[in-house]
Amino acid sequence: MLIRLLASSLLAFACSNSFAHEYTIGELQIAHPWSRALPPNAVTGAAYFVVHNQGKTEDRLLGAQTSRATKTEIHTMLQLGEVMKMQKLDSVGIPAGGEAKFAPGGNHLMLFGLQKPLVAGERFPLTLEFEKAGKVEVEVVIEDTAPDQHAGH
């Protein structure tokens, strides 16, 4: 009985960690970097995450790099009349005591010139560069659906 309970607990822990992963640099916490799985012929993709700033001063995301793409840019989506348009940004502020969300339909990292397909279940490295906190490498999880569509998320 005890062995079954331990095995169940370990399995639950392993499953919850497959979706939730966080990284810390200085006063910043980067929560659950993810990307959506795409067809094999896709040449562009996107990466999403949330940056929480526990500090007393604003920081800024200045850029990102990954070996998975030839170029990475910060983008946002703007509503112009009845048309959604993507726009490149130089940086995104992370307010003191606040957060910056990178999510579908808003701010995100565009991955241009994908070196290989984004396949569900795989992971790839992404280096984020912040104005004050510096650089941190995170691991992006490639998922079938957005994380908020997973049960228990």
Which key terms come to mind for this protein?
disordered C terminus, mainly beta, 11-stranded mixed β-sheet, Immunoglobulin-like, 153 residues, disordered N terminus, 1 helix
3D structure, described in words:
The chain is mainly beta and 153 residues long. The protein has one domain (23-145): Immunoglobulin-like (Sandwich). It is built from 1 helix and 11 strands. It has one helix at 2-19; strands at 22-25, 28-36, 44-53, 59-65, 69-80, 83-89, 92-94, 99-102, 108-114, 123-130, 134-143. Strands 1, 2, 3, 4, 5, 6, 7, 8, 9, 10 and 11 form an 11-stranded mixed β-sheet that branches. The longest helix has 18 residues, at 2-19. It is globular, with a radius of gyration of 17 Å. Residues 1-19 and 149-153 have low confidence and may be disordered.
